[in-house]
């Protein structure tokens, strides 16, 4: 049975040590460990723990960014191997900040947590138009759309995007989740979003619920 | 009481005759240029283009006639140079998405095909742009220009290019601005710069043509955890410059400033914080304490701390660090209940803000809802002094004029009804 130093990789992710995370991942692959086993057996539970620590305020934004960086260092090695093996992700999320909004730290944290949760993340970046979300749905088969806004002045673009998805005939293909400082469950309901996440950790649980629904 | 006496009373936790009001005194208590223009129209003031005196957030200058009309007690003094490194002088007209405004001669921009507007550091069109206003936005955000990072070659001096001893021209500007502000009879809120210690809006150095060091926002946040020695060395040098500059400025302006904007570094998010309290005390607290201790030992200024978000957990440390004033008092964030804040910290911190929610009520509520919230907040924060009315952060573009009017009228209603 090939060996994965599970504790060491978990420690590297929790401690934000990307160099060790990459080294342990490479060593595990060299030993013949299945890439999917590394994701499901270690990275996903480690990032779940990061989310838990963030929720209970033992971790804050810097720690979360560091852990995400370590997870990504491992995923960068695993991703092509997973693709070559035809492994399907938990879901495909097209994520971006809405048109006019350049504030992307929250979006990046949510994206990292989703990737660490086993999702394929199609990061469309900041200031993203409805057309680019539609393109991600039609060309990349995204089944989730995650919209982020920090500002009250850009938040209404969430409604515009959802309407555009409907007009383009792709609304039924995806679940739409929204988040960001001024966004509330009430606002999410009012614009016809499928879910609202208050934090990066909550976003992963929400995404899992939405793809399972 | 006149405006200055009113502010001085409230900053000393004595109840003034009326709740004093600030709009435009600082870069975090201001009004978007479009709202300034709209309020001038509302009051029927002389039609003239409003000056964009803070181009990063596109804040408009509130001149004396509007201050009078709105019943504002504070005027601001700002550094000679803007966030983008050019001075505010030689005003020129600019049509800002249909609104005629005035901008500095060195406010130099380029418009991209998609409608985004790029702005250039020091007005130098040959330098890489340092700010972008997306087509759907009404203010600039910094463009991160992060050179490749090599941990073995990181030099704190690279993060100190924008800090140094104040130059004569900048000092004279502050002195003349202070004289002008003091002559208005209003209280003065002065911003000198250089004492923020890691304000994330300033980390990318939009005023520099080719910033070096750690300039990426996420990289900076990461560094506050993983490169603390480096950050300490940056803050240590910054603090030395700051103390020398404060001494030089105070020698010239004396105690004519009532409040001094020390720090805009945000420690709160909507639901949590950017760091733990122990991390704050280890990395930031020593420098804030040195700055505030110097100010209190040598001047009559009150020190102003801005931090958005859920920051009540930091209030004991802010107080211990010597901050007198907290802004914007984001009551919409977690753990920021106004009555609880007033009860627990009202005798030790002045609440400069918190007057109305700018995430929901003011932009999206009705005038009646705005009035109701303003009256309630005044009832909570006003007793015993220690309250300067301001919305929670700047008034944003698109805020309904009727709601701004309802907000101001409600403060005056409270002042008229609640005071003899």
The secondary structure category of chain A is alpha/beta
Instruction: Assign a percent range to the helix content of chain B.
Output: 25-40%
CATH superfamily membership of the largest domain in chain A: Cobalamin-binding domain
Beta strand count of chain B: 15
Assign the CATH topology of chain B.
TIM Barrel
Uncertain regions spanning at least 5 consecutive residues of chain B: none
Second-tier CATH architecture of the largest domain in chain A: 3-Layer(aba) Sandwich
Q: Rough shape of chain B? A: globular
**Helicity of chain A, in percent?**
55-70%
| Percent of sequence in beta strands of chain B | 5-15%
Could you characterize the architecture of this molecule?
The complex is a heterodimer of chains A (about 210) and B (about 425). Chain A is α/β, with parallel strands linked by helices. Chain A folds into 2 domains: about 80 residues, Methyltransferase, Methionine Synthase (B12-binding Domains), Chain A, domain 1 (Orthogonal Bundle); about 120 residues, 3-Layer(aba) Sandwich (Rossmann fold), CATH 3.40.50.280. Chain A contains 9 helices and 5 strands. Chain B starts with a helix and ends with a helix. Chain B has 13 helices and 15 strands. Chain B has about 425 residues and is an alpha/beta fold. Chain B has one domain: TIM Barrel. In chain B, strand 6 and strand 7 form a beta hairpin. The interface between A and B is medium-sized, with 28 and 32 residues.
């Amino acid at each position: 049975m090939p060996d994965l130093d599970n504790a060491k990789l978990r420690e590297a992710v929790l401690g934000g040590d990307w160099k060790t995370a990459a080294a342990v991942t490479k060593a595990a692959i060299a030993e013949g460990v299945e890439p999917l086993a590394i994701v499901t057996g270690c990275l996903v539970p480690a990032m779940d723990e990061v989310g838990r620590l963030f929720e209970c305020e033992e971790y804050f934004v810097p720690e979360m960014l560091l852990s995400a960086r370590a997870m990504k260092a491992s995923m960068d090695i695993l991703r092509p191997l997973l693709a070559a093996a035809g492994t399907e992700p938990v879901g495909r999320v097209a994520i971006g900040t809405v048109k006019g909004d350049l504030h992307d730290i929250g979006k990046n944290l949510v994206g990292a947590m989703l990737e660490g949760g086993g999702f394929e993340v199609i990061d469309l970046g900041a200031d993203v138009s409805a057309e680019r979300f539609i393109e991600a749905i039609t060309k990349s088969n995204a089944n989730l759309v995650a919209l982020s806004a920090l500002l009250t002045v850009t938040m209404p673009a969430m409604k515009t995007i959802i309407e555009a998805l409907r007009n383009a005939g792709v609304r039924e293909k995806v679940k739409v989740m929204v988040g960001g400082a001024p966004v509330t469950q009430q606002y999410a309901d009012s614009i016809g979003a499928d879910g609202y996440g208050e934090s990066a950790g909550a976003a992963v649980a929400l995404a899992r619920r939405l793809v399972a629904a | 009481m006149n405006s200055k006496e009113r502010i001085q009373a409230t900053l000393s936790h004595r109840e003034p005759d009326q709740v004093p009001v600030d709009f435009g005194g600082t870069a975090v208590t201001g009004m978007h240029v479009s709202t300034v223009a709209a309020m001038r129209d509302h009051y029927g003031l002389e039609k003239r283009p409003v000056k964009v005196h803070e181009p990063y957030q596109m804040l408009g200058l509130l001149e004396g006639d509007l201050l009078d009309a709105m019943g504002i007690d504070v005027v601001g003094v700002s550094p000679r140079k803007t966030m983008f490194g050019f001075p505010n002088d030689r005003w020129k007209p600019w049509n800002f998405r249909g609104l005629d405004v005035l901008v500095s001669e060195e406010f130099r921009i380029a418009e991209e095909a998609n409608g985004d507007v790029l702005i250039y550091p020091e007005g130098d069109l040959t330098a890489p742009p340092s700010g972008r206003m997306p087509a759907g936005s009404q203010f600039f955000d910094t463009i991160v220009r992060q050179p490749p990072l090599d941990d073995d070659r990181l030099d704190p001096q690279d993060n100190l290019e924008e800090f140094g001893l104040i130059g004569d021209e900048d000092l004279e500007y502050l002195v003349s601005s202070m004289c002008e502000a003091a002559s208005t009879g209003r209280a003065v809120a002065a911003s000198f710069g250089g004492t923020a210690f890691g304000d994330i809006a300033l980390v990318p150095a939009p005023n520099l043509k080719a910033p070096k060091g750690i300039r990426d926002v996420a990289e900076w946040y990461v560094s506050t955890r993983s490169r603390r020695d480096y950050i300490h060395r940056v803050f240590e040098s910054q603090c030395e410059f700051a103390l020398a500059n404060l001494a030089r400025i105070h020698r010239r302006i004396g105690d004519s400033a009532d409040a001094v904007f020390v720090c805009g570094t945000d420690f709160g998010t909507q639901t949590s914080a950017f760091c733990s309290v122990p991390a704050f005390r280890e990395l930031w607290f020593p420098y804030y304490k040195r700055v505030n201790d110097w100010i209190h030992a040598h001047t009559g200024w009150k020190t102003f701390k801005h931090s958005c978000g859920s920051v009540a957990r930091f209030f004991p440390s802010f107080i211990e660090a010597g901050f007198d004033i907290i802004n914007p008092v984001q009551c919409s964030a977690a753990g920021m209940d106004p009555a609880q804040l007033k009860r627990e910290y009202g005798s030790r911190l002045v609440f400069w803000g918190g007057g109305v929610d700018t995430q929901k009520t003011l932009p999206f509520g009705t005038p009646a809802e705005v009035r109701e919230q303003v009256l309630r907040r005044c009832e909570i924060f006003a007793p015993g002094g220690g309250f300067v009315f301001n919305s929670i952060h700047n008034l944003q573009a698109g805020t309904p004029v009727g709601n701004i009017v309802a907000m101001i009228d409600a403060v005056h209603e409270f002042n008229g009804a609640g005071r003899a």
